[in-house]
């Protein structure tokens, strides 16, 4: 799950809904030659399913017994996170090998910094072997896959920024952005869509309180009404000025 604080409430998003928003973004992406991309359908599928391993965990959310807070994608115990990455990278290996390759690249991108941690070595080896198998299956140059993965990484970042309510400006792969939580608008430069667009992201709001365990949290979530968070994606006016100032000597 993604859990963000807003006033006295917690906004709870499933990883599936976060990824679906990222996929909707890419489906409207005009930059990076996405409309004519020979693997466009697989790219969109990979973005939409890049967190598929979280389905089972989000269906049975857990609570940190020490803090009383719901576990999110950063605080879930490491052993459970390793199993999530195993499921997520393996689920489509046979039926959708190219999306599976991009999802595997995503997993490696996020956990390669664990290379010196013995508890992660087995998973890192599995991912490396899976990546090799999938590259041989799709018969695609590794550099091409890395270039395609950048679109997974970009749309994931935009969606994470919105769902986590992050307000710090970001820049990645030549795209700059910032999020205004007061009006639920994310501004991007250079703007990759055809025009400003409003998206709906499913969300539940629960009280920001101490939860006594998984059953307490689960009951609160079950009683919470599903809502649609409307998010506007628009050009970042003035980003060019900031960009120019950053390059001045």
Summarize the helices and strands and which ones pair or pack.
Blueprint: E1 2-6, E2 9-13, H1 15-27, H2 40-48, H3 55-59, H4 78-90, H5 97-111, H6 118-138, H7 142-164, E3 170-172, E4 175-180, E5 185-189, E6 197-207, H8 214-223, E7 226-235, H9 239-247
Helix pairs in contact: 1-2, 1-7, 2-5, 2-7, 4-5, 4-6, 5-6, 5-7
Report on this model:
- Helices cover 47% and strands 18% of the residues.
- The chain has helices spanning 15-27, 40-48, 55-59, 78-90, 97-111, 118-138, 142-164, 214-223, 239-247; strands spanning 2-6, 9-13, 170-172, 175-180, 185-189, 197-207, 226-235.
- It is globular and about 50 Å long.
- It starts with a strand and ends with a helix.
What tags apply to this protein structure?
249 residues; alpha+beta; 9 helices
From the alpha carbons, calculate the radius of gyration and give it in angstroms.
Answer: 19 Å
Instruction: Count the E strands.
Output: 7
Mean pLDDT, all residues: 94
For the record, give the distance between the C-alpha atoms at the N and C termini, rounded to a whole number: 43 Å
Report the biggest beta sheet as strand number plus sense, adding barrel if it closes: 7 strands, mixed
The helix content, as a percent range, equals 40-55%
Q: Which regions contain 5 or more consecutive residues with pLDDT less than 50?
A: 244-249
Enumerate how many helices there are, as a single number.
9
Spatial sequence of strands, sheet with the most strands: 1-2-6-7-5-4-3
Relative strand content:
15-25%
The 3D shape can be described as globular
Secondary structure category: alpha+beta
Following the backbone from N to C, one meets helices and strands in this order, namely EEHHHHHHHEEEEHEH
């Amino acid at each position: 799950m993604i859990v963000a604080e807003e006033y006295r409430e917690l906004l709870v998003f499933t990883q599936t809904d976060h990824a679906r928003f990222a996929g909707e973004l890419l489906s409207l992406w005009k930059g990076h030659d996405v409309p004519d991309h020979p693997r466009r359908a697989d790219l969109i599928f990979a973005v939409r399913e890049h967190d598929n391993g979280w389905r089972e965990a989000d269906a049975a959310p857990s609570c940190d017994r020490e803090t009383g807070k719901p576990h999110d994608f950063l605080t879930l115990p490491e052993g459970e996170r390793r199993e999530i990455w195993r499921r997520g990278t393996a689920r489509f290996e046979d039926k959708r090998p190219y999306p599976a390759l991009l999802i595997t690249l995503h997993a490696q991108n996020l956990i390669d910094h664990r290379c010196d941690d013995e508890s992660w070595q087995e998973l890192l080896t599995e991912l490396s072997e899976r990546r090799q198998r999938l590259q041989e299956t799709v018969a695609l140059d590794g550099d091409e896959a890395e270039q395609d993965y950048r679109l997974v990484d970009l749309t994931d970042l935009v969606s994470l920024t919105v769902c986590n309510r992050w307000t710090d400006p970001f820049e990645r792969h030549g795209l700059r952005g910032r999020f205004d939580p007061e009006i639920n608008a994310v501004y991007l430069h250079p703007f990759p869509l055809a025009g400003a667009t409003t998206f709906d992201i499913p969300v539940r709001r629960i009280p920001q309180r101490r939860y006594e365990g998984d059953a307490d949290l689960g009951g609160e979530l079950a009683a919470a009404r599903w809502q649609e968070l409307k998010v506007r994606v628009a050009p970042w006016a003035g980003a060019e000025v900031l960009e120019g100032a950053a390059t001045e000597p």
